[in-house]
Amino acid sequence: MTAETAPPTGTRTLAWRRRRASATRFWKEYRRHRAGLFGLAALVLFGLVALTAPLTVGSDVQSVTGAPGQPMESPSGRFPLGTDQFGRNLLGLVVWGSRVSLLVGLLAAVLSVAIGALIGITAGHFRGWYATVLMRITDWFLVMPTLVLAIVLATVMSRSLGTIVLAIGVTTWPTTARLVRAQTLAVESRPYIERAKALGGGHWHIMSRHVLPNVMPLVLAQTTLIISSAILAEATLAFLGLGDPSVVSWGGLLQDAREAGAVSSGDWWYLVPPGIAIAAVALAFTLCGRAVESVLNPRLGVSR
Question: Comparing C-alpha atoms, which of 297, 235, 280 is closest to residue 100?
Answer without folding.
Answer: 235
